[in-house]
Design a protein that fits this description.
- This protein has 440 residues and is an alpha/beta fold.
- The protein has 14 helices and 15 strands.
- It has a single domain, classed as Alpha-Beta Barrel (TIM Barrel).
- Strands 7-2-1-15 form a 4-stranded parallel beta sheet, covered by helices on one side.
- The longest helix has 14 residues.
- The protein is globular and about 75 Å long.
Length: 440
Amino acid sequence: MPHLTFPRRPLAALALLLAATAAGAAAPERTPPMPHTATPQATAAAPLGQHGLIVIAHRGASGYRPEHTLEAYRLAIAQGADFIEPDLVATRDGELVVRHENEISGTTDVAEHPEFAARKATKTIDGETLTGWFTEDFTLAELKTLRAKERIPQVRPGNTRFDGQFAIATLKEVIALAKAESRDGRVIGIYPETKHPTWFASEGKHLDGSPIGISLGRKLIDTLVAEGFTDPRRVYIQSFEVGNLIELKREIMPRAGVDLPLVQLYGDFGRDTPYDFVYNLRTGADLARIYGDLGKAIPGGLGKATFGALTETDALAWMKAHYVSGLGPSKTSLIERAPLPAKRDADGDGRALLATRNTGFVHPLLGRALALGLQVHPYTVRAEEPFLTQTANGIDQSALGEALQLYGLGVQGFFIDQPDIGVAARKLFLEQSKIAPIAK
C-alpha cells in the first residue's frame, strides 16, 4: 500500500487532513449556489484533471441535486469535476436520454401523469423483474413532459425540494453543456455508460411486443460524431457488459473514424456475471464471433465466468490487448468491508447507520491493473453515513478520508456524488504528498 510523507504544514492543513478520518463522517448538508451559464469557447487542447488524477461527478452532483439532470451536471462542473457521467437509455423514437435505468418511476413523476397510466408494465431486464414505466415505451417529446425527482429521498431529503423542477436531459444536451462550460483554459469531459445494451439491442420489447433493436453503442458514437465531441481526452465509455465494449472497439468506432477509451465496469466479483455472457450462452450465440478467444484467458471459459474471473492477470492482459483502457470496480469490491457487531451513529444525528469496517484487504485487481498500465476508477464515494465505513483500525471514515485513501492506493480517479469533496481531497492529497525539507 503506498503511503504519504506529510511535511510540516500550517495547522489549518493538518486539521483538514485529520478531519478526513475523524468521527462524524458525513459532510454537513450544503446547498452550493447554482453556477452561471457559461458561453461556448473552444478549449479542447487543454488537459483534464491534475497530475493524472481526475474527479468524476457520479450522475452529476447527485448529492445536492436530483441525479442525471442538467442542473446536477452544471453544479458538478461549478464544483470542479473533470468529468460528468450520463447513464444512457433509449426512447421509443431512438433518442438517447439520461437516466440511471430505463424504468423511470423512481426518478420521475411519471406515476402522476394519468395520460401514461396504461403504459405501466412488468418486464424482466437482465434477469430482474421490474414493474413500472420504461423509456423505450415513450417518445422523447413525451418524456420531456415529465419532471425528475430525488431517487433516494430517505437518504437525501434536502434534494426533494427540487422535485418536479427539472426535465429529463438528452445526451445531446449534456454534450452541449460540457462544451459551453469548457472555457478559460478548463475542459469538461463526459463519461457515458450504456445501460442494459443487450436488452436494448437483442432481448427487449416495447409495450406492444415489437423488438426494440437499438444499439446503444452505435447511437452513442453517432451522436458524439454528429456533435463534434470525439477528443479521446474528453470521453470515457463504460459498461457492465463485455460484448458491447468489444464491438465498440472492433467495429463501431473504427467505422466512425474515432478511438475513445473504454472502461470495463465490474459487479460483485463473486456473485455477479456480465449479463451478455448469460444471455449469449443461453441463446446459443456464436461466442467466438462476439468475444474472440477471451474464453481461453479465463479458467473454465466463458461458461463459468463471474466478474471475478475478469480480475485475473491473464484476463486483464487479454482485455487490455483487445478493448479496455480502464476498469471500474466497486469500491467495496476493491477494499473489502466486514459488518460491524452493531451499527454506529457516526455523524451524531441520532440514527445509527454506519455498518461496516474495512478489513485491510485490498483486492489484487488493483495491483494487476496498475502493473498493466490500466486506469482504475472505482465507484462510488458518497458522503452520507449509510455509504461510509470505518478504517481497518476502527476510525469512522468520512467521504474525504475515503477519497484520500483511494488516491493513496494509486487509483487515477473515482466516481463521487459530492464532487466538491473529491476536488478537496485531490487538492489535499497533492499538497500533503510533497516532501518538504526537514527543519533543523
